Amino acid sequence: MNILKTDIDGVLILEPRVFGDSRGYFFESWSKTRYHEAGIDCDFVQDNESCSSYGVLRGLHYQAAPYTQAKLVRVIQGAVLDVAVDIREGSPTYGKHVAVELSGENKRQLFIPRGFAHGFAVLSQTAIFAYKCDNFYQPSAERGIRFDDPQLAINWQVRPDHWNLSEKDTRHPAFRDIQPWRPTP
User: Which residue, 76, 91, 107, 117, could crosslink 85 as a Cys pair with Cβ 3.0–4.6 Å?
Assistant: First the structure.
């Protein structure tokens, strides 16, 4: 497995070793031992999967403490632009983001530690998106940041006239109005 560090501490791009032949391919999408050696020491408790069409933009989502989540995300089919925004209080990269194309073809994964808001935009006709979480979803702790906040300046790589968002995702507050994330003691 190839591990690529990003400009934000703790956010990692993982490129698994893919074994292919005339029958297709095989790779380990998760190995507790291997990922622990890479610095990812999470006890993942929930797997989620979504299927979305071109232009669907989901995010930017996070959960308030004590229900914050680390995530390991990947695309099974299609392609997305995946985005992680640093909301960690006192972080030198607070308000900065990492944006990575994940696809069924490149098999890349993105590890997003606790203290980040997360979202993605579908770049292909459809995409099947899967992710692991180290904490259960808690509706009362659900939070979000406005996806098009000019302070974040995220280029979603989808023209605005093709954006497709849930009603909820159009009502999130601006980045400047959120409560920064603090680790739970």
Answer: 117
Measured in whole angstroms, the distance separating CA 43 from the mean position of its chain's CA atoms is: 17
**Alpha carbon distance 158, 54 (integer Å):** 9
Question: 35, 118, 131, 172: which one is catalytic?
Answer: 131
Per-residue pLDDT for 167 more than 90? yes
Q: Is residue 26 part of a domain?
A: no
Domain of residue 128 covers 2-16+43-177
Catalytic option among 35, 61, 62, 118 = 61
What is the token pair recorded at 139?
A: 């509706």
Taking 70 as the threshold, does the pLDDT of residue 91 lie above it? Answer: yes
How many separate domains does the chain show?
Answer: 1
Cα dihedral 98/102/108/112 (nearest 10):
40
The stretch 121-142 carries a mean pLDDT of 97
Q: What is the CATH number of the domain that holds 144?
A: 2.60.120.10
| pLDDT score for 66 | 92
Per-residue pLDDT at 185 exceeds 70: no
Q: Is 97 a catalytic residue?
A: no
Q: Is 131 a catalytic residue?
A: yes
Tell me the pLDDT tens digit for each residue of 146-162. 999 999 999 999 999 99
